[in-house]
Specification:
The structure is a homodimer of 117-residue chains.
Chain A: H1 22-29, H2 32-42, E1 50-51, H3 61-74, E2 77-82, E3 85-90, H4 92-98, H5 102-115
Antiparallel strand pairs in A: 1-3, 2-3
Helix pairs in contact in A: 1-3, 2-5
Chain A binds a DNA duplex (30 and 30 nucleotides) through residues 51-53, 59-66, 68-69, 81, 83-86.
Chain lengths: 117, 117
DNA sequence: CTGCTATGTTCGCGATTCCCGAACATGATG
DNA sequence: CATCATGTTCGGGAATCGCGAACATAGCAG
C-alpha cells in the first residue's frame, strides 16, 4: 500500500499530521478570508462538512478556490469530492495534537472577521 | 498631545495595542525568519533589546530590514534607534493582552526553527 | 441521448509582494 | 577628515495574488 497522503496521482493532497509546519499553518490562518472559512467550519463541528459555495465570501470564485487549496495544503482542512461538490472539514484533531490552543485562539477571531462583513 | 502611534512624521510607526489585527500578526509570525526573530527576542525578555545584526539570519541585509519592518508594523516588536543601531524588543504585554496564549505557542516553534539552522 | 444547470478548477493577465545586490545615509572611531 | 559599522532605500527579476473567462464534471429534465 501507499503510505503517502494521496490515494491516486490526481487526488487531492493532504499533508500528514507529522508533516504540518507551524509557519505554514500560521500563514494560512493569517488571511481574513481563510480565517473566516475556518471559523465557519468550526461552527459545524464535529463531522460537519460544508461545500465551498456555502461560505458567501467577498471574493471571486477562482480566488475562493485558491484559498481552499492553501488551507488544504497547509493541513488546516480536509477536502473530499462528493459528486460535483467539494466538501470541507476542519482538521481539528491534527491541529490540536500538533499546535494545542491555536484553533481555540483563531476561531473566535475568525468569527469576529465574519461579524465585520 | 498626539494619541497616534508615531512621535514625528519621520519616526517609526508602531500600531497601538487596540489597533493590532489578528490576521496581520499571524501573517507576520507565519514566516520562519520572522518567527526566529521573535523567539530570539523572547529569550532576552524582559526589557531585553537586540540589534538587528545579532540575529545571524540566513537572508540578506536588505531582506532582514524588510522582515523587521513587517514585524514592527504588525505590532509584534517595538523598535527604537540608538546611535547607528536599531534595537528591537518584543511587545509581549500588548500581544498577551490582545491574543493571550499566542506568543507562548509561537515562541517554542520559533526556537525549533532556529535549532534546524 | 440531448441540453441545461450547478459546482469548482484551470488559464492568462495585470498588480502586488518578495528577495537580492548596489548604493546611500548616519553615527561612531581614530 | 577618513574609515568603519549598522541599517535603509532603490531598482530589477521572480514569485504570488486576485480577477474574469473558459473549461470539466455531475446531476437533472425532457
Amino acid at each position: 500500500m501507499d503510505a503517502m497522503a494521496s490515494r491516486t496521482a490526481t487526488e487531492l493532497l493532504h499533508p500528514d499530521r507529522a508533516q504540518l509546519r507551524f509557519t505554514t499553518v500560521l500563514a494560512a490562518l493569517g488571511d481574513p478570508v481563510r480565517l473566516a472559512i475556518v471559523a465557519r467550519l468550526a461552527d459545524v463541528e464535529p463531522d460537519g462538512e460544508l461545500a465551498c459555495t456555502t461560505f458567501a465570501l467577498p471574493v471571486s470564485k477562482s480566488t475562493q478556490s485558491g484559498h481552499f487549496k492553501t488551507l488544504r495544503e497547509a493541513g488546516v482542512i480536509r477536502q473530499r469530492d462528493e459528486g460535483t461538490r467539494r466538501l470541507n472539514r476542519l482538521r481539528r484533531d491534527d491541529l490540536d495534537a500538533r499546535f494545542p490552543g491555536l484553533l481555540d485562539l483563531a476561531i473566535p477571531q475568525g468569527r469576529q472577521v465574519i461579524a465585520g462583513w
